[in-house]
Design brief:
Elements lengths: L2 E6 L26 E2 L8 E7 L2 H8 L7 E8 L4 H9 L2 E2 L2 E2 L4 E4 L21 E8 L6 H8 L4 E9 L2 E2 L8 E3 L2 H10 L11 H6 L8
Parallel strand pairs: 3-9
Antiparallel strand pairs: 1-3, 1-11, 2-3, 4-8, 4-9, 5-6, 7-8, 9-10
């Protein structure tokens, strides 16, 4: 099995082909037979996990396993405590409320690389960085969350998925996971099968023994 993380650059698709000729992961990860676990938007940057382990891929992508993803979000303005609280409790996006999130305003700008295309700059409006941790995967969720509380996202970076972090991995580069990291991921996505509740009839049929399905 192959387990790889890549630091996806800005304006790169989280896939290996594109009929429109846009940049894809194939331009940065020349490894055949692997697929991304989840997605990261074209205009977002950061950690993407790639593997040919279909079982792990499915489990890590499934919201029921609540694998936490960390995002560093540069927003227009400085969010108030009220706005941060709303993000923590959940906001409505197209009629659906987001699950509770872990949110904090970063006191200092995180140490990140320069983006190929700088964000828009407005002299009279400062920007700030917010860390948001979620286990959901709604379309463009983080951007829509910050917009819903009045602070549009200018730049979005994912530095971590569960226990995996980018570390010093430069944009456009990748590395294979250490065995310990693979075991951590498998442990994170492991959920033992639960025995189905038996009726009185089934108890008699199986003489009280538990049966797993």
């Amino acid at each position: 099995m192959k387990y790889i993380i890549v630091n996806k650059p800005y304006e790169v698709l989280t896939q290996f082909t594109d009929e429109a000729g846009r940049a894809t992961l194939k331009d940065h990860v020349p490894v055949p037979g692997i697929y991304p676990v989840g997605r990261l938007d074209y205009d977002s940057e950061g950690l993407v996990l790639l593997t040919d382990d279909k079982k792990l891929q499915h489990r890590l992508s499934n919201p029921q396993f609540k694998v936490e993803k960390t995002y560093w979000v540069q927003v227009d303005g400085v969010p108030t405590e009220e706005a941060l609280t709303r993000l923590r409790l959940g906001v409505f996006i197209k009629g659906s409320k987001t699950a509770p999130a872990k949110v904090r305003l970063l006191e200092e700008e995180p140490s990140v690389w320069e983006r190929a295309k700088p964000i828009r700059f407005r002299k009279n409006i400062p920007t700030s960085w917010v860390e948001i941790r979620i286990s959901q995967g709604m379309n463009r969720q983080v951007r829509r969350m910050t917009a819903a509380v009045g602070y549009p996202t200018l730049r979005l970076i994912r530095p971590a998925i569960g226990p995996l972090t980018l570390g010093n991995l430069a944009p456009g580069t990748y590395r294979e996971l250490e065995q310990e990291e693979v075991e951590q991921l498998k442990s994170l996505a492991h959920q033992p099968d639960k025995p189905r509740k038996q009726t009185g009839a089934s108890k008699n049929n199986f003489k009280g023994r538990n049966r797993k399905f």
